[in-house]
Amino acid sequence: MTAADAGASPHAALEALIAWATSDERKDDLLKGKAEYFQRTGEVFDDDRQLEARMAGFLEFFVCDRVSPQLGTTPAVARYALALKDEGPEQARGWHAFTSTLRALFEVRAIGAGTVRLRELFSQVDYEVAERRHIVGLQVGDVLEARIIAWAGQYHFSGSWCWHPHEAAPSIVAEANRRLKEQDQRPPADLADDCAQRSLKVDRYRQIPVERIYEFAAARPR
User: Fold this and answer.
1) Tens-digit pLDDT profile for the chain (222 aa)?
2) Which of 62, 122, 143, 153 has a beta carbon 3.0–4.6 Å from 188's, enabling a disulfide?
3) CA distances from 10 to 15, 47, 98, 203 (A)
4) Range 69-72, long-range pairs (CB < 8 A, 24+ positions)
5) From CA 198, how far away is CA 26, in angstroms rounded?
């Protein structure tokens, strides 16, 4: 199957990539990757509101971010290399998009007709992203975790995201700025994972103020 066979959208192509990467012969690797992901971002349960989004996030982590011991690289890179070898550069082009996706924390800077402008908190780079389905109800100034894909000259959201309440945005932005200023060596994904765990706590412990759940100072290394 080529990326073109998967359809004209990045979502259909991503689904095809996931199907290829999660075949039966990779079951053990899939289980290990699942344990790694949920250890980092927080365990989810069947009655969690975020279950579907978190499972989508795991599968995208598995194919786009995690280096597979079986393949020696990410499944996305392996699929692109296979397409180059067997299908040719033109047919392989679609798979290349998934070798460089960006999962990050973004601040919503502007919302337009069918697009949203996001600012990645660590690089401070702005991205104009097509489609708004993942941020319905969010406001300018909010922070969300999302994965964006460069496809056919535009940025698109993937199928996963992590919601952070409006009250949490100032704390998340301040923590990212603090890490930048202090040249904290932890990768940006570390803060995204930390915030993902806190988002689950907001859903589960509604009696605790959001601002307290997103209080980063108490968890800083001493």
Assistant:
1) 455 455 578 999 999 999 999 998 899 999 999 999 999 999 999 999 999 999 999 999 999 999 999 899 999 999 999 999 998 888 888 999 999 999 999 999 999 888 999 999 999 999 999 976 666 678 999 999 999 999 989 999 998 999 899 999 999 999 999 999 999 999 999 999 999 999 999 999 999 999 999 999 866 655
2) 122
3) 9, 29, 9, 30
4) 69/29, 70/26, 70/29
5) 31
**Are residues 220 and 113 part of one domain?**
yes
Of 93, 98, 91, 151, whose CA–CA distance to 127 is shortest? 151
Q: Is 2 inside a domain boundary?
A: no
Tokens in use for 22?
């999660």
Among 99, 122, 154, which residue terminates a domain? 99
- CATH code assigned at 191: 2.40.50
Dihedral class, residue 48 (left if φ above 0, else alpha if ψ from -120 to 50, else beta):
beta
Give residue 129's domain range: 104-222
173 sits in which H/E element: helix 169-181
Q: Which helix (H) or strand (E) holds 105?
A: strand 102-111
